[in-house]
Amino acid sequence: MPSTPDPASWRPQPSPRPYPLVGVDLPGAGAHPQAWRREDSRAEELFGPRYWADLTGRLDAAGADIAFFPDRFGVASGPGTVRGRLEALGTAARLSTTTRRIGLVPTQTTTHTEPFHVAKAVQSLDHTTRGRAGWQVDVSADPAGYRLFGRKEVQDPADLWDEAAEVIEVASRLWDSWEDDAEIRDVATGRFVDREKLHYIDFVGRHFSVKGPSITPRSPQGRPVVVIAVTDQASRAVAVRTADIIRVAADDVDAAEALAGELRREAGDRELRILLDVDAHVDADEATAIRELAQLEEWAGEPYRGRTLLRVGSAASLVGLITDVGARPPLDGVVLRPLALAGGVTVLTQHVLPALRPPELARDDTTLRELLGLSRPANRYAA
Amino acid sequence: MTPRPKQIHLAAHFPGVNNTTVWTDPRSRSQIDIDSFVHLARKAEEGLFDFFFLAEGLRLREQGNRIFDLDVVGRPDTFTVLQAIAGVTTRLGLAATINTTFNEPYELAKQFATLDHLSEGRAAWNIVTSPDAFTGENFRRGGFLDYGLRYDRAAAVVSAARRLWDSWGRPPRIDRAAGVFAADEDLAPVDLHDGHVDITGRFEVPRSPQGQPVLLQAGDSSAGREFAAGHAEVIFSRHGTLADGQAFYADVKRRLPAYGRHADDLKILPGVSVVLGDTRQEAEDNARRIARQQVGPQTAIAFLEQVWGTDLSGYDPDGPLPAVDPSPHATITRGRVRHDRDPVAVAAAWRARAETEGLSIRDLVIAETHRQQFVGTADQVADEMNRYVQSDACDGFILVPHLTPGGLDDVIDRVVPRLQDRGVFRTSYEGATLRDLLGSRPAVSFAAVPSGPSAASGPGDPGPAASSTGRRGPVGVRG
């Protein structure tokens, strides 16, 4: 078991807000693979804009802090669960003009994509959202994914995350490759940019090289927020070095607190936020929530087993859990993963978020970094 | 009964990263801020345009090994911007210029299918190729592609994307009672292997509203025209005079029957700019003023340096051309299309023209870089546009404004109503998708085949450009 964190080795990074951070994961019809079978699942709308705009719009209005859009390559092999998904960054971008405050964090995997494309897409999302973009970094370990690209041999986790770390390094250099004041529009000399403020990144790594600069000017946050879910030693090593937000999974809040303390020590003085993943199926009425989970499990033919703690019950009990997390400083809040998303968002927006924060606190002129209480990074290339 | 006149198709090109876009004008706004994109897109939709168009550039241009600093520099990611615009428009097509060299077909197919779903059938792909090692320095793939192979890879990538899009024969069957979400027969496995593409598996995005996005093509070589005849539904062309346009139009349209396609299935839309005035004189004065904004003194010298291959900063832009010849092999420009002719010959021709017409360096550059323009009153421009379309020089235009973001406001407010008066432009949007607006059928006729893997090997299979790659190995879909 992890030991109790040594308070001398890390210090809490004060949040600018008096309530815990709440992110929401939006995995298709829900975290439970049978969620689509519920009458209220909106399964027929999973590939259209209304479902995503409606759910994210309501979360935004209710004061949720971050919407996460998971992604990967390949489809489920059998017809019993949802097959197919939309590309996450495109989905987040589609919502950038219809939401006002919520952070939008799509997953982009680093195994098969071009680092340059990843970097400029995330950076552009930061422009289209006026500073509300993040990037959840993940790897594509599934061998089936390799066969969709046909470019390289299957890698082990250490190599995958070593590559991911290179992609993060390239992205952060590209994001800095334009100084904030590089665009000068100097009519007298005819110069649109000051090219002394544009920088080649000249990255040469084990997996690839990238020249730079970005084709996109520096974005409102300077660097969009980097998110990594710690799932193994390899992801953990990269997360403590590079992530602005670390997502953790744990069986209970005590274990999460201990793990978060360790991660903070490993991260040293770096600013970061740590959010605990919570699988949730709640209703205003506890008995209903329990009965509905039983229905999902019956369809699945097995009990639900997530990779983190599960809260099934009343909305009030989830509020209590989140409040408890918020009172343990190594943790900054939660990422809720509704087992059934469409219905879950309704409960969250009607019964959970209003109990945690007054809506008038929600301002729509802040960047995601400001909302998280993270400073805007200085440009590594600026004199 | 008089037949209905040919209808004009219009599209809006977001101002580019080159000297055509004037940033010195006080009305010029950000080329990055989402508000600029939203402004032009909403205006184009108000004007009932077919689509909004974004160009591509994946490396900042250089001259003399330094980043070129005289033009607008910097642009956001194409898919990201088009998705953002999809959220604030409802009918306007959204055209992405995406090259086939530095992208993977599986990922591209996923991105385009996502755009088509989330825009409810408004996605278009302007297919471009790049064999450019300079741009390749930003990519894992690097500058690996021989110039001669660029259309081979383009055809292989486009074919692969189409097979992926077609692999979902129909929307997923959703049967809650039976516990079936997309039965196996809804999505066929794909097995594609040739020299450029290596894909085994199932595609993860169900069939989108248009089945596949509208395809645009911008190449003008013979290979490019053939590629367009086999694949594209729109050609973004560049032919200045009426006669040139007519020759190009006839040449491309006569290639279509070989692919089982009708002349209406491929629209030819040259990129043009429009300058208006209340009188012809005023419009011409405006055009001259804009041309001088586009070619400032420093830009004129820089343009000359691209041919001479050497530093000419000591020359007076308002003076005569250099008397010295260019060095024959110098290239100092990277990241944009080069002059592929002999620089000594180009310089000689320019000097001769300047001498004959009494042009300074700047005047000469303005004359040489002049793109097709319609200049006049709104009525005159409407008449001239219509004349080009009715006399088969084109099917419409991609309008390239010189100002961000308001550069098409005038055209949409003043010329569009006059085209409508003449009965040659729509007065409301009809149909559901971009393809409906264009009135074309896709090059691969998947719609004729009800479902399943056989759809992808049906009639209208990719043409010669694609089959040349097919010779290197089997391209097929396993059912």
What does this structure look like?
The complex is a heterodimer of chains A (383) and B (479). Chain A is of the alpha/beta class. Helix content of chain A is 35%, strand content 16%. Chain A contains 11 helices and 13 strands. Chain A has an 8-stranded parallel β-barrel with strand order 1-2-3-4-9-10-11-13, surrounded by 9 helices. The longest helix of chain A is centred in the middle third of the chain and has 20 residues. Chain B is α/β, with parallel strands linked by helices. Chain B has an 8-stranded parallel β-barrel with strand order 1-2-5-6-11-12-13-16, surrounded by 6 helices. A 3-stranded antiparallel beta sheet of chain B has the order 4-3-14, with no helix packed on it. The longest helix of chain B has 17 residues. Chain B is globular, with a radius of gyration of 23 Å. Chains A and B meet through helix 1, helix 2, helix 3, strand 6 and strand 8 of A and strand 4, helix 2, helix 3, strand 8 and strand 10 of B.
How many helices of chain B? The count is 15
* Total beta strands of chain A: 13
**Distance between the terminal alpha carbons of chain A, to the nearest Å?**
46 Å
Low-confidence runs of at least 5 consecutive residues of chain A: none
Span between termini of chain B: 50 Å
Cα radius of gyration of chain A in angstroms: 21 Å
Supply the helix-strand structural class of chain B: alpha/beta
In spatial order, strands of the major sheet of chain B run 1-2-5-6-11-12-13-16
Spans of chain B with pLDDT under 50 lasting ≥5 residues?
Answer: 445-479
Largest sheet of chain B: 8 strands, parallel, barrel
